[in-house]
Write a structure and sequence with these properties.
The structure is a single chain. About 20% of the residues lie in helices and about 35% in strands. It is built from two helices and six strands. Strand 3 and strand 4 form a beta hairpin.
Length: about 110
Amino acid sequence: MRYMLLIYGCHREELPDAYNEVNKYVKELMARGVFLGADPLHLPDTATTVQVRSDEVLITDGPYAETHEALGGYFMVDCADLDAAIELASLCPLAKLGTVEIRPVLEAQFG
C-alpha cells in the first residue's frame, strides 16, 4: 500500500544541515525497496491558493492553511501496512525536527 509521509514544521531553507541525514534516509528507503518519490517544498509564503465559487476564480497569495507548522515536503513510500509506514516515519531524520504525518493513498482508478 502507498503512504505519503507528510513533513510539517521543517523547510529546506531552514535546515541546510539536514540534507546529509535526509540523503541517508532516502538511500535506506531505496535499499528496502519502498521509495517511490520525495520532494521538499518552498516556504509557505511562495504558495498561491485557487478556489472557484459560483464560477468565479478566486486567487490568494499564500498558503491555504495559516499555521506555524506548514507542510514542508513529503516522501512517498510503498509498504505492507500502517505498522511498516510508522517504522519508516520514525526513522525519518526530519521527525526529530518537526512532525511526520502518515497518510494512506487512496488507490483510485482514473480514466
